[in-house]
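Reproducibility note. Readers wishing to regenerate the assembly model reported in the main text can use the exact inputs given here. Chain order matters: entities are listed in the order in which they were concatenated for prediction.
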Amino acid sequence: MMKKFKTDSEISDQIRKSLENYEEEYVQGSWENFQQKRKKNDRKLFWLIASGVAACLLIGFAGLSYLHVDKMDHQNPVVQQTVSGTDEKPATNKNSIPEKSSSLTASLKLDSKQISSAGMTKSTNVTQKINSIATEVNNPAQNLQTSAFAADTARKVPLLASDFQSQPKKYKADSVNNSRDTITRKPSNTFLNLPAKKENRELASASGRKVRFGINFSPGVNSAQTSGSMDYTGGVSADITLSSRFLLSTGLQVQNQHVDQKIAGIVSSTSAPQDETKTKLINLDVPLNIIWKLFSAKSNSWYVSAGVSSLVYLNQQDVNTKYSNLLVPVSLKVGGSDVKTYDIVSQVSVTQNTVTPTQTFDLAGRINLMVGFETKLSNRMLLHFEPYAKIPSPGQTSNSLNQTTTGINFKVSF
Amino acid sequence: MESRKEENLEFIVQGCIKKKEKFQELLYKKFFGYALSVALIYNRQRSDALEVVDDSFVKVFSKIGKYDTSKPFLGWLRKIVINTSIDNLRRNNKDHLFVEPEKYPVPDEAPNAISHLAVQDIMEILNLLPHYLKTVFCLYEIEGYSHDEIAEQLGIPVSSSRVYLTRAKKQLRELFPVNHLEE
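Running the prediction on these inputs yields the following C-alpha coordinates for the assembly.
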Protein backbone atom coordinates (compact mmCIF):
# COMPACT_ATOMS: atom_id res chain seq x y z
CA MET A 1 0.00 0.00 0.00
CA MET A 2 1.46 3.29 -1.07
CA LYS A 3 0.57 6.60 0.37
CA LYS A 4 0.50 9.72 -1.77
CA PHE A 5 1.01 13.03 -0.03
CA LYS A 6 -1.55 15.58 -0.97
CA THR A 7 -1.13 18.49 1.40
CA ASP A 8 1.88 20.62 2.20
CA SER A 9 1.58 20.00 5.92
CA GLU A 10 1.62 16.24 5.38
CA ILE A 11 4.83 16.54 3.44
CA SER A 12 6.40 18.85 6.01
CA ASP A 13 5.37 16.56 8.87
CA GLN A 14 6.81 13.54 7.14
CA ILE A 15 10.12 15.31 6.50
CA ARG A 16 10.30 16.62 10.05
CA LYS A 17 9.52 13.20 11.57
CA SER A 18 12.06 11.45 9.37
CA LEU A 19 14.85 13.86 10.16
CA GLU A 20 14.03 14.09 13.88
CA ASN A 21 16.00 11.04 14.95
CA TYR A 22 18.40 11.01 12.06
CA GLU A 23 22.03 10.97 13.13
CA GLU A 24 25.15 10.07 11.20
CA GLU A 25 27.88 7.92 12.67
CA TYR A 26 31.34 9.14 13.59
CA VAL A 27 33.70 8.96 10.62
CA GLN A 28 37.07 7.46 11.53
CA GLY A 29 39.97 9.87 11.17
CA SER A 30 37.82 13.00 11.34
CA TRP A 31 39.31 14.22 14.63
CA GLU A 32 42.85 13.84 13.24
CA ASN A 33 41.89 15.76 10.10
CA PHE A 34 40.25 18.42 12.23
CA GLN A 35 43.40 18.83 14.33
CA GLN A 36 45.59 19.18 11.27
CA LYS A 37 43.26 21.74 9.78
CA ARG A 38 43.21 23.68 13.04
CA LYS A 39 47.00 23.69 13.30
CA LYS A 40 47.27 24.91 9.74
CA ASN A 41 44.82 27.72 10.47
CA ASP A 42 46.76 28.64 13.60
CA ARG A 43 49.98 28.80 11.58
CA LYS A 44 48.28 30.98 8.98
CA LEU A 45 46.99 33.29 11.69
CA PHE A 46 50.41 33.47 13.33
CA TRP A 47 52.13 34.46 10.10
CA LEU A 48 49.41 36.93 9.27
CA ILE A 49 49.82 38.62 12.65
CA ALA A 50 53.62 38.39 12.57
CA SER A 51 53.86 39.89 9.09
CA GLY A 52 51.35 42.58 10.05
CA VAL A 53 53.32 43.51 13.15
CA ALA A 54 56.61 43.47 11.22
CA ALA A 55 55.17 45.68 8.50
CA CYS A 56 53.73 48.10 11.08
CA LEU A 57 57.04 48.25 12.94
CA LEU A 58 58.94 48.85 9.74
CA ILE A 59 56.61 51.62 8.62
CA GLY A 60 56.51 53.07 12.13
CA PHE A 61 60.27 53.21 12.60
CA ALA A 62 60.86 54.50 9.08
CA GLY A 63 58.27 57.22 9.68
CA LEU A 64 59.82 58.08 13.02
CA SER A 65 63.31 58.43 11.64
CA TYR A 66 61.93 60.55 8.80
CA LEU A 67 60.15 62.83 11.26
CA HIS A 68 63.33 63.24 13.30
CA VAL A 69 65.33 64.31 10.26
CA ASP A 70 62.58 66.76 9.29
CA LYS A 71 62.51 68.22 12.77
CA MET A 72 66.24 68.77 12.82
CA ASP A 73 66.19 70.40 9.40
CA HIS A 74 63.92 73.10 10.77
CA GLN A 75 66.48 74.13 13.36
CA ASN A 76 69.63 76.07 12.55
CA PRO A 77 72.26 73.46 12.07
CA VAL A 78 75.22 75.82 11.54
CA VAL A 79 74.89 77.46 14.93
CA GLN A 80 74.82 74.11 16.68
CA GLN A 81 77.85 72.97 14.77
CA THR A 82 79.94 75.99 15.65
CA VAL A 83 78.97 75.89 19.30
CA SER A 84 79.66 72.21 19.64
CA GLY A 85 82.87 72.64 17.73
CA THR A 86 84.01 75.16 20.24
CA ASP A 87 83.08 72.92 23.12
CA GLU A 88 85.23 70.15 21.82
CA LYS A 89 88.33 72.23 21.37
CA PRO A 90 90.20 73.62 24.34
CA ALA A 91 90.65 77.40 24.50
CA THR A 92 94.42 77.06 24.43
CA ASN A 93 94.40 75.39 21.05
CA LYS A 94 96.02 77.53 18.42
CA ASN A 95 93.21 77.01 15.94
CA SER A 96 90.43 77.53 18.38
CA ILE A 97 88.43 80.64 19.10
CA PRO A 98 86.84 81.60 22.39
CA GLU A 99 83.23 80.74 23.13
CA LYS A 100 81.99 84.20 22.37
CA SER A 101 83.88 84.16 19.11
CA SER A 102 81.90 81.14 18.07
CA SER A 103 78.88 83.35 18.06
CA LEU A 104 80.80 85.66 15.87
CA THR A 105 81.48 82.86 13.46
CA ALA A 106 77.79 82.25 13.29
CA SER A 107 77.04 85.85 12.89
CA LEU A 108 79.28 85.97 9.87
CA LYS A 109 76.43 84.56 7.95
CA LEU A 110 74.41 87.64 8.58
CA ASP A 111 74.17 90.23 6.00
CA SER A 112 76.63 92.99 6.71
CA LYS A 113 73.73 95.39 6.80
CA GLN A 114 72.10 93.43 9.58
CA ILE A 115 75.26 93.51 11.61
CA SER A 116 75.74 97.22 11.31
CA SER A 117 72.08 97.92 11.99
CA ALA A 118 72.35 95.90 15.17
CA GLY A 119 74.30 98.72 16.67
CA MET A 120 77.81 97.38 16.49
CA THR A 121 79.69 100.61 16.78
CA LYS A 122 82.27 99.89 19.46
CA SER A 123 85.10 99.27 17.07
CA THR A 124 85.03 100.18 13.43
CA ASN A 125 88.05 98.01 12.80
CA VAL A 126 86.27 94.93 14.01
CA THR A 127 83.18 95.82 12.03
CA GLN A 128 85.23 96.17 8.92
CA LYS A 129 86.88 92.85 9.65
CA ILE A 130 83.55 91.18 10.12
CA ASN A 131 82.27 92.67 6.91
CA SER A 132 85.32 91.51 5.03
CA ILE A 133 84.95 87.96 6.38
CA ALA A 134 81.23 88.01 5.69
CA THR A 135 81.84 88.79 2.06
CA GLU A 136 84.19 85.81 1.83
CA VAL A 137 81.53 83.43 2.99
CA ASN A 138 79.31 82.15 0.24
CA ASN A 139 77.32 79.63 2.16
CA PRO A 140 73.74 78.98 1.06
CA ALA A 141 72.83 78.53 4.69
CA GLN A 142 72.84 82.30 4.92
CA ASN A 143 69.27 82.34 3.76
CA LEU A 144 68.20 80.25 6.69
CA GLN A 145 69.00 82.97 9.23
CA THR A 146 65.98 84.08 11.16
CA SER A 147 65.15 87.40 12.68
CA ALA A 148 65.39 85.85 16.15
CA PHE A 149 68.88 84.73 15.42
CA ALA A 150 69.74 88.23 14.16
CA ALA A 151 68.52 89.71 17.39
CA ASP A 152 70.57 87.22 19.35
CA THR A 153 73.64 88.07 17.33
CA ALA A 154 73.00 91.77 17.82
CA ARG A 155 73.19 91.21 21.56
CA LYS A 156 76.42 89.29 21.32
CA VAL A 157 78.32 91.44 18.85
CA PRO A 158 79.20 94.31 21.23
CA LEU A 159 80.81 91.76 23.51
CA LEU A 160 82.68 90.29 20.63
CA ALA A 161 83.92 93.64 19.63
CA SER A 162 85.47 94.13 23.03
CA ASP A 163 87.04 90.69 22.83
CA PHE A 164 88.61 91.54 19.57
CA GLN A 165 89.89 94.77 20.90
CA SER A 166 91.60 92.98 23.73
CA GLN A 167 93.13 90.32 21.45
CA PRO A 168 93.50 91.96 18.11
CA LYS A 169 96.63 90.13 16.92
CA LYS A 170 95.44 86.65 17.74
CA TYR A 171 92.18 87.22 15.95
CA LYS A 172 93.85 88.58 12.87
CA ALA A 173 95.99 85.51 12.61
CA ASP A 174 93.41 82.80 13.22
CA SER A 175 89.86 83.98 13.01
CA VAL A 176 89.52 83.88 9.25
CA ASN A 177 90.82 80.36 9.05
CA ASN A 178 88.66 79.30 11.92
CA SER A 179 85.62 80.84 10.35
CA ARG A 180 86.29 79.14 7.10
CA ASP A 181 86.88 75.82 8.79
CA THR A 182 83.72 76.06 10.76
CA ILE A 183 81.48 77.25 8.02
CA THR A 184 82.63 74.77 5.44
CA ARG A 185 81.70 71.94 7.77
CA LYS A 186 78.48 70.24 6.89
CA PRO A 187 75.41 71.08 8.99
CA SER A 188 75.19 68.96 12.05
CA ASN A 189 72.19 66.98 13.14
CA THR A 190 71.83 65.81 16.68
CA PHE A 191 69.79 62.81 15.58
CA LEU A 192 72.59 61.76 13.28
CA ASN A 193 75.01 62.09 16.15
CA LEU A 194 73.32 59.35 18.16
CA PRO A 195 75.79 56.71 19.32
CA ALA A 196 74.18 54.03 17.19
CA LYS A 197 74.62 56.20 14.16
CA LYS A 198 78.20 56.96 15.01
CA GLU A 199 78.98 53.29 15.47
CA ASN A 200 77.09 52.50 12.35
CA ARG A 201 79.34 54.86 10.46
CA GLU A 202 82.35 53.20 12.02
CA LEU A 203 81.09 49.80 10.91
CA ALA A 204 80.37 51.10 7.43
CA SER A 205 83.73 52.74 7.18
CA ALA A 206 85.35 49.52 8.34
CA SER A 207 84.00 47.89 5.25
CA GLY A 208 84.56 51.09 3.32
CA ARG A 209 82.27 50.00 0.51
CA LYS A 210 79.14 51.29 -1.11
CA VAL A 211 78.27 47.82 -2.37
CA ARG A 212 78.92 44.66 -0.41
CA PHE A 213 78.79 41.34 -2.18
CA GLY A 214 77.98 38.13 -0.42
CA ILE A 215 77.38 34.44 -0.77
CA ASN A 216 74.63 32.72 1.15
CA PHE A 217 73.01 29.41 1.95
CA SER A 218 69.64 28.96 3.60
CA PRO A 219 67.89 25.80 4.65
CA GLY A 220 64.15 26.26 5.09
CA VAL A 221 60.82 24.56 5.56
CA ASN A 222 57.76 24.83 3.34
CA SER A 223 54.40 24.96 5.04
CA ALA A 224 52.61 22.30 2.99
CA GLN A 225 49.03 21.38 3.78
CA THR A 226 49.78 18.41 5.93
CA SER A 227 53.51 18.16 6.24
CA GLY A 228 56.54 20.39 6.14
CA SER A 229 58.97 19.91 3.29
CA MET A 230 62.61 20.94 3.11
CA ASP A 231 63.85 23.70 0.94
CA TYR A 232 67.47 24.70 0.14
CA THR A 233 68.49 28.03 -1.29
CA GLY A 234 71.91 29.33 -2.23
CA GLY A 235 73.32 32.15 -4.28
CA VAL A 236 74.98 35.52 -4.40
CA SER A 237 73.82 38.82 -3.03
CA ALA A 238 74.65 42.49 -3.28
CA ASP A 239 73.87 45.04 -0.57
CA ILE A 240 73.88 48.61 -1.81
CA THR A 241 74.23 51.32 0.84
CA LEU A 242 71.52 53.94 0.45
CA SER A 243 72.30 55.76 3.68
CA SER A 244 74.02 54.79 6.88
CA ARG A 245 70.80 53.13 8.08
CA PHE A 246 69.20 51.88 4.90
CA LEU A 247 70.50 49.39 2.35
CA LEU A 248 69.03 47.91 -0.78
CA SER A 249 69.64 44.21 -1.08
CA THR A 250 69.35 42.17 -4.23
CA GLY A 251 70.94 39.05 -5.71
CA LEU A 252 70.36 35.81 -7.51
CA GLN A 253 69.31 32.71 -5.61
CA VAL A 254 68.75 29.17 -6.74
CA GLN A 255 66.06 27.41 -4.78
CA ASN A 256 65.57 23.67 -4.64
CA GLN A 257 62.28 22.57 -3.17
CA HIS A 258 60.70 19.22 -2.41
CA VAL A 259 57.08 19.57 -1.47
CA ASP A 260 55.04 16.62 -0.21
CA GLN A 261 51.41 17.48 0.21
CA LYS A 262 48.75 15.18 1.53
CA ILE A 263 45.38 16.35 0.35
CA ALA A 264 42.51 15.77 2.71
CA GLY A 265 39.71 14.59 0.48
CA ILE A 266 36.27 13.34 1.36
CA VAL A 267 36.73 11.26 4.46
CA SER A 268 35.16 7.88 4.08
CA SER A 269 34.36 5.38 6.75
CA THR A 270 36.76 2.91 5.15
CA SER A 271 39.61 5.33 5.93
CA ALA A 272 41.40 5.22 2.57
CA PRO A 273 44.89 6.77 2.49
CA GLN A 274 45.02 10.46 1.67
CA ASP A 275 45.93 11.63 -1.83
CA GLU A 276 49.51 12.80 -2.25
CA THR A 277 51.23 15.33 -4.45
CA LYS A 278 55.03 15.30 -4.58
CA THR A 279 56.57 18.30 -6.27
CA LYS A 280 60.24 18.74 -7.17
CA LEU A 281 61.07 22.26 -8.10
CA ILE A 282 64.13 24.31 -8.97
CA ASN A 283 63.62 27.99 -9.39
CA LEU A 284 65.54 31.25 -9.57
CA ASP A 285 64.70 33.83 -6.95
CA VAL A 286 65.59 37.48 -7.51
CA PRO A 287 64.96 39.33 -4.27
CA LEU A 288 64.70 43.09 -3.85
CA ASN A 289 64.69 44.01 -0.19
CA ILE A 290 65.13 47.14 1.87
CA ILE A 291 67.32 46.60 4.93
CA TRP A 292 66.98 48.92 7.86
CA LYS A 293 69.66 48.80 10.56
CA LEU A 294 68.09 49.14 13.96
CA PHE A 295 71.03 48.87 16.34
CA SER A 296 74.72 48.88 15.66
CA ALA A 297 77.62 48.19 17.97
CA LYS A 298 81.31 48.12 17.15
CA SER A 299 81.42 44.72 15.57
CA ASN A 300 77.81 43.69 15.11
CA SER A 301 74.40 45.08 14.26
CA TRP A 302 70.74 44.14 14.15
CA TYR A 303 68.45 44.88 11.28
CA VAL A 304 65.07 44.13 9.74
CA SER A 305 64.33 43.69 6.11
CA ALA A 306 61.29 43.57 3.87
CA GLY A 307 60.76 43.29 0.16
CA VAL A 308 59.64 41.11 -2.72
CA SER A 309 61.07 38.23 -4.72
CA SER A 310 60.52 37.54 -8.39
CA LEU A 311 60.60 33.88 -9.37
CA VAL A 312 61.52 32.03 -12.54
CA TYR A 313 60.78 28.32 -12.55
CA LEU A 314 63.55 26.25 -14.08
CA ASN A 315 62.25 22.77 -13.45
CA GLN A 316 58.99 21.54 -11.99
CA GLN A 317 57.84 17.98 -11.70
CA ASP A 318 54.58 16.96 -10.00
CA VAL A 319 53.73 13.38 -9.11
CA ASN A 320 50.11 12.92 -8.02
CA THR A 321 49.06 9.74 -6.26
CA LYS A 322 45.34 9.19 -5.79
CA TYR A 323 43.82 6.50 -3.65
CA SER A 324 40.23 5.41 -4.03
CA ASN A 325 38.05 2.57 -2.81
CA LEU A 326 35.54 0.75 -4.95
CA LEU A 327 32.65 -1.40 -3.80
CA VAL A 328 32.57 -4.59 -5.90
CA PRO A 329 29.49 -6.81 -5.65
CA VAL A 330 30.28 -10.44 -4.78
CA SER A 331 27.77 -13.29 -4.74
CA LEU A 332 28.20 -16.01 -2.14
CA LYS A 333 26.27 -19.18 -1.58
CA VAL A 334 25.31 -19.56 2.05
CA GLY A 335 23.11 -22.57 2.94
CA GLY A 336 22.13 -23.13 -0.66
CA SER A 337 20.90 -19.57 -1.21
CA ASP A 338 22.67 -16.68 -2.95
CA VAL A 339 23.82 -13.88 -0.71
CA LYS A 340 25.02 -10.64 -2.28
CA THR A 341 27.84 -8.90 -0.45
CA TYR A 342 30.26 -6.11 -1.31
CA ASP A 343 34.05 -6.16 -1.21
CA ILE A 344 36.18 -3.06 -0.91
CA VAL A 345 38.87 -2.85 -3.58
CA SER A 346 41.56 -0.21 -3.30
CA GLN A 347 42.76 1.61 -6.40
CA VAL A 348 45.91 3.68 -6.78
CA SER A 349 46.47 5.99 -9.73
CA VAL A 350 49.72 7.89 -10.32
CA THR A 351 50.01 10.81 -12.72
CA GLN A 352 53.14 12.75 -13.54
CA ASN A 353 53.27 16.31 -14.78
CA THR A 354 56.38 18.20 -15.94
CA VAL A 355 56.34 21.93 -16.54
CA THR A 356 58.55 23.35 -19.31
CA PRO A 357 61.49 25.34 -17.89
CA THR A 358 61.31 29.17 -17.73
CA GLN A 359 57.68 29.13 -18.82
CA THR A 360 56.41 30.34 -15.48
CA PHE A 361 57.50 33.71 -14.16
CA ASP A 362 56.15 35.36 -11.04
CA LEU A 363 57.00 39.03 -10.81
CA ALA A 364 57.00 39.92 -7.12
CA GLY A 365 55.62 36.47 -6.44
CA ARG A 366 56.70 36.48 -2.83
CA ILE A 367 56.85 38.88 0.05
CA ASN A 368 60.07 38.61 2.06
CA LEU A 369 60.26 39.41 5.75
CA MET A 370 63.50 39.06 7.64
CA VAL A 371 65.19 39.84 10.90
CA GLY A 372 68.97 39.88 10.73
CA PHE A 373 72.11 39.95 12.83
CA GLU A 374 75.54 40.63 11.42
CA THR A 375 78.89 40.26 13.09
CA LYS A 376 82.38 41.13 11.97
CA LEU A 377 84.60 38.20 11.00
CA SER A 378 87.49 40.37 9.91
CA ASN A 379 88.03 43.93 8.75
CA ARG A 380 86.49 43.16 5.38
CA MET A 381 84.20 40.28 6.11
CA LEU A 382 80.83 40.08 7.85
CA LEU A 383 78.79 37.04 8.84
CA HIS A 384 74.99 37.38 8.74
CA PHE A 385 72.26 35.27 10.39
CA GLU A 386 68.86 36.03 8.95
CA PRO A 387 65.71 34.18 10.03
CA TYR A 388 63.21 34.80 7.25
CA ALA A 389 59.71 34.13 6.01
CA LYS A 390 58.76 34.16 2.35
CA ILE A 391 55.04 34.56 1.97
CA PRO A 392 53.39 33.98 -1.42
CA SER A 393 51.79 37.14 -2.71
CA PRO A 394 48.20 36.99 -3.96
CA GLY A 395 47.94 36.00 -7.59
CA GLN A 396 51.08 33.89 -7.74
CA THR A 397 51.11 31.98 -11.02
CA SER A 398 52.06 28.59 -9.64
CA ASN A 399 49.21 27.59 -7.37
CA SER A 400 50.80 24.27 -6.42
CA LEU A 401 53.57 26.17 -4.64
CA ASN A 402 51.38 28.70 -2.96
CA GLN A 403 52.92 28.25 0.47
CA THR A 404 55.02 30.03 3.02
CA THR A 405 58.73 29.21 3.36
CA THR A 406 60.55 29.85 6.62
CA GLY A 407 64.17 29.30 7.48
CA ILE A 408 67.52 30.85 8.36
CA ASN A 409 69.83 32.45 5.85
CA PHE A 410 73.56 32.27 6.51
CA LYS A 411 75.49 34.87 4.56
CA VAL A 412 79.10 35.99 4.33
CA SER A 413 79.56 39.44 2.83
CA PHE A 414 82.75 41.22 1.83
CA MET B 1 20.95 7.64 33.28
CA GLU B 2 20.08 10.89 31.41
CA SER B 3 21.25 13.05 34.30
CA ARG B 4 24.52 11.11 34.40
CA LYS B 5 24.93 11.84 30.71
CA GLU B 6 24.28 15.52 31.33
CA GLU B 7 26.76 15.55 34.20
CA ASN B 8 29.23 13.89 31.91
CA LEU B 9 28.59 16.51 29.24
CA GLU B 10 29.03 19.31 31.75
CA PHE B 11 32.34 17.77 32.78
CA ILE B 12 33.46 17.64 29.13
CA VAL B 13 32.32 21.22 28.53
CA GLN B 14 34.29 22.39 31.57
CA GLY B 15 37.38 20.64 30.18
CA CYS B 16 36.82 22.32 26.80
CA ILE B 17 36.56 25.72 28.50
CA LYS B 18 39.98 25.02 29.97
CA LYS B 19 41.17 24.28 26.39
CA LYS B 20 42.13 20.71 27.23
CA GLU B 21 42.58 18.75 24.03
CA LYS B 22 41.46 15.47 25.52
CA PHE B 23 38.03 16.90 26.35
CA GLN B 24 37.80 18.63 22.99
CA GLU B 25 38.35 15.26 21.33
CA LEU B 26 35.64 13.70 23.49
CA LEU B 27 33.16 16.45 22.63
CA TYR B 28 34.04 16.28 18.94
CA LYS B 29 33.59 12.53 18.73
CA LYS B 30 30.42 12.60 20.81
CA PHE B 31 28.61 15.20 18.70
CA PHE B 32 30.24 14.69 15.31
CA GLY B 33 27.43 12.48 14.02
CA TYR B 34 24.74 14.90 15.12
CA ALA B 35 26.55 17.89 13.64
CA LEU B 36 27.11 16.02 10.37
CA SER B 37 23.44 15.07 10.11
CA VAL B 38 22.44 18.73 10.51
CA ALA B 39 25.12 19.87 8.06
CA LEU B 40 23.95 17.33 5.47
CA ILE B 41 20.50 18.90 5.46
CA TYR B 42 21.94 22.25 4.43
CA ASN B 43 24.78 21.08 2.20
CA ARG B 44 24.29 19.07 -0.94
CA GLN B 45 27.79 17.57 -1.01
CA ARG B 46 29.07 15.40 1.80
CA SER B 47 32.52 17.02 1.54
CA ASP B 48 30.94 20.45 2.10
CA ALA B 49 29.05 19.10 5.09
CA LEU B 50 32.27 17.70 6.59
CA GLU B 51 33.96 21.05 6.12
CA VAL B 52 31.03 22.79 7.78
CA VAL B 53 31.24 20.39 10.73
CA ASP B 54 34.93 21.17 11.21
CA ASP B 55 34.36 24.91 10.93
CA SER B 56 31.50 24.62 13.39
CA PHE B 57 33.65 22.81 15.94
CA VAL B 58 36.34 25.48 15.59
CA LYS B 59 33.64 27.99 16.58
CA VAL B 60 32.37 25.73 19.35
CA PHE B 61 35.84 25.43 20.92
CA SER B 62 36.60 29.11 20.63
CA LYS B 63 33.23 30.27 21.99
CA ILE B 64 32.45 27.55 24.48
CA GLY B 65 33.19 29.95 27.31
CA LYS B 66 30.07 31.88 26.31
CA TYR B 67 27.86 28.76 26.27
CA ASP B 68 25.02 28.93 28.78
CA THR B 69 25.09 25.53 30.52
CA SER B 70 21.45 25.88 31.58
CA LYS B 71 20.39 25.50 27.95
CA PRO B 72 20.68 22.27 25.94
CA PHE B 73 24.04 21.84 24.25
CA LEU B 74 22.52 20.21 21.18
CA GLY B 75 20.42 23.29 20.43
CA TRP B 76 23.47 25.53 20.69
CA LEU B 77 25.53 23.24 18.47
CA ARG B 78 22.69 22.95 15.93
CA LYS B 79 22.45 26.71 15.66
CA ILE B 80 26.19 27.02 15.09
CA VAL B 81 26.14 24.33 12.39
CA ILE B 82 23.19 25.98 10.62
CA ASN B 83 24.79 29.42 10.75
CA THR B 84 28.08 28.04 9.47
CA SER B 85 26.26 26.25 6.64
CA ILE B 86 24.49 29.46 5.66
CA ASP B 87 27.77 31.40 5.77
CA ASN B 88 29.35 28.73 3.61
CA LEU B 89 26.43 28.80 1.22
CA ARG B 90 26.60 32.58 0.93
CA ARG B 91 30.37 32.55 0.45
CA ASN B 92 30.57 29.75 -2.11
CA ASN B 93 27.43 30.32 -4.12
CA LYS B 94 27.21 34.07 -4.22
CA ASP B 95 26.93 34.25 -7.98
CA HIS B 96 24.42 31.55 -8.61
CA LEU B 97 22.31 31.60 -5.48
CA PHE B 98 19.16 32.74 -7.19
CA VAL B 99 19.71 30.94 -10.45
CA GLU B 100 17.62 27.85 -10.76
CA PRO B 101 19.39 24.85 -12.26
CA GLU B 102 18.45 23.80 -15.79
CA LYS B 103 17.90 20.25 -14.64
CA TYR B 104 17.64 18.75 -11.21
CA PRO B 105 21.04 17.76 -9.83
CA VAL B 106 21.98 14.19 -9.11
CA PRO B 107 22.07 13.66 -5.35
CA ASP B 108 25.38 12.93 -3.63
CA GLU B 109 26.10 9.23 -3.24
CA ALA B 110 26.59 8.72 0.47
CA PRO B 111 26.90 5.33 2.14
CA ASN B 112 23.38 4.23 3.07
CA ALA B 113 22.45 2.10 6.00
CA ILE B 114 19.19 0.19 5.80
CA SER B 115 17.87 1.93 8.91
CA HIS B 116 18.46 5.27 7.22
CA LEU B 117 16.75 4.37 4.00
CA ALA B 118 13.73 6.59 4.51
CA VAL B 119 15.91 9.44 5.67
CA GLN B 120 18.20 9.05 2.67
CA ASP B 121 15.19 9.14 0.34
CA ILE B 122 13.99 12.33 1.93
CA MET B 123 17.45 13.83 1.73
CA GLU B 124 17.59 12.93 -1.94
CA ILE B 125 14.25 14.57 -2.61
CA LEU B 126 15.32 17.68 -0.68
CA ASN B 127 18.53 17.78 -2.67
CA LEU B 128 16.50 17.91 -5.86
CA LEU B 129 15.30 21.35 -4.84
CA PRO B 130 17.35 24.41 -5.78
CA HIS B 131 19.67 25.29 -2.93
CA TYR B 132 17.90 28.39 -1.73
CA LEU B 133 14.43 26.85 -1.81
CA LYS B 134 15.72 23.92 0.20
CA THR B 135 17.39 26.18 2.77
CA VAL B 136 14.30 28.35 3.23
CA PHE B 137 12.08 25.28 3.48
CA CYS B 138 14.29 23.59 6.09
CA LEU B 139 14.75 26.73 8.15
CA TYR B 140 11.00 27.34 8.22
CA GLU B 141 9.62 23.81 8.52
CA ILE B 142 12.35 21.97 10.43
CA GLU B 143 14.01 24.67 12.53
CA GLY B 144 10.85 26.71 13.07
CA TYR B 145 12.39 30.05 12.04
CA SER B 146 10.08 32.91 11.11
CA HIS B 147 10.25 34.57 7.72
CA ASP B 148 11.82 37.64 9.35
CA GLU B 149 14.61 35.50 10.84
CA ILE B 150 15.17 33.66 7.54
CA ALA B 151 15.32 36.93 5.64
CA GLU B 152 17.88 38.28 8.10
CA GLN B 153 19.99 35.12 8.01
CA LEU B 154 20.06 34.82 4.24
CA GLY B 155 20.17 38.54 3.51
CA ILE B 156 17.05 38.47 1.36
CA PRO B 157 13.73 40.38 1.60
CA VAL B 158 10.99 38.84 3.75
CA SER B 159 8.73 38.63 0.73
CA SER B 160 11.36 36.56 -1.09
CA SER B 161 11.48 34.16 1.82
CA ARG B 162 7.72 33.63 1.55
CA VAL B 163 7.95 33.15 -2.22
CA TYR B 164 10.79 30.62 -1.88
CA LEU B 165 8.84 28.64 0.71
CA THR B 166 5.78 28.50 -1.53
CA ARG B 167 7.90 27.42 -4.49
CA ALA B 168 9.68 24.79 -2.40
CA LYS B 169 6.40 23.31 -1.23
CA LYS B 170 5.04 23.32 -4.76
CA GLN B 171 8.07 21.48 -6.08
CA LEU B 172 7.98 19.00 -3.19
CA ARG B 173 4.34 18.26 -3.98
CA GLU B 174 5.39 17.42 -7.51
CA LEU B 175 8.33 15.32 -6.36
CA PHE B 176 6.68 13.35 -3.58
CA PRO B 177 4.17 11.30 -5.63
CA VAL B 178 7.08 10.21 -7.81
CA ASN B 179 9.35 9.46 -4.89
CA HIS B 180 6.59 7.92 -2.78
CA LEU B 181 7.20 6.50 0.65
CA GLU B 182 5.88 3.31 2.05
CA GLU B 183 3.20 3.71 4.64
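We highlight two features of this model. The two ends of chain A are 92 Å apart (CA to CA). Strands of chain A lie at 2-3, 211-223, 228-241, 246-263, 275-296, 300-334, 337-355, 361-376, 382-392, 405-413.
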